[in-house]
């Protein structure tokens, strides 16, 4: 098995890389793009600007959520590995 650290170093493994490659995802993405076109056609220029501001805010919020999910998932996986090795750090006193 190739080293995960080597893959990360060589940028072959990155949490930011899209990994969803399913027909369901492709359909959902196509539907979303179609809906965006419909909304843009229905809005005047002032409302389009508001729409894009809203979309950008949602994307930024979603990015923060994904970062948090990744960090919590990584920590959970690490704790699982420690547990599998018989190590219990819940009793270790934390220092600042």
Overview of the molecule:
The chain is mainly α and 96 residues long. Helices cover 69% and strands 0% of the residues. It is built from 3 helices and no strands. It has helices at residues 4-9, 23-42, 45-84. The longest helix is centred in the C-terminal third of the chain and has 40 residues, at 45-84.
Proportion in β-strands = under 5%
Query: What's the alpha carbon Rg, rounded to whole Å?
Result: 21 Å
The general outline is elongated
| Arithmetic mean pLDDT | 85
Q: Please report the number of helical segments.
A: 3
Summarize the structure.
With 96 residues, this protein is an all-alpha fold. The protein has three helices and no strands. The longest helix is centred in the last third of the chain and has 40 residues, at 45-84.
Features:
96 residues, mainly alpha, 69% helix, 0% strand
SSE topology:
Elements: H1 4-9, H2 23-42, H3 45-84
């Amino acid at each position: 098995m190739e080293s995960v650290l080597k893959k990360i170093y060589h940028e072959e493994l990155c949490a930011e890389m899209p990994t969803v490659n399913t027909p369901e995802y492709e359909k959902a993405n196509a539907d979303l793009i179609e809906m965006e076109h419909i909304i843009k056609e229905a809005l005047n220029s002032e409302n389009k600007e508001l729409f894009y501001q809203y979309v950008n805010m949602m994307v930024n919020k979603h990015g923060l959520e994904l970062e948090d999910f990744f960090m919590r998932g990584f920590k959970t996986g690490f704790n699982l590995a420690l547990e599998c090795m018989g190590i219990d750090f819940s009793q270790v006193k934390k220092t600042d």
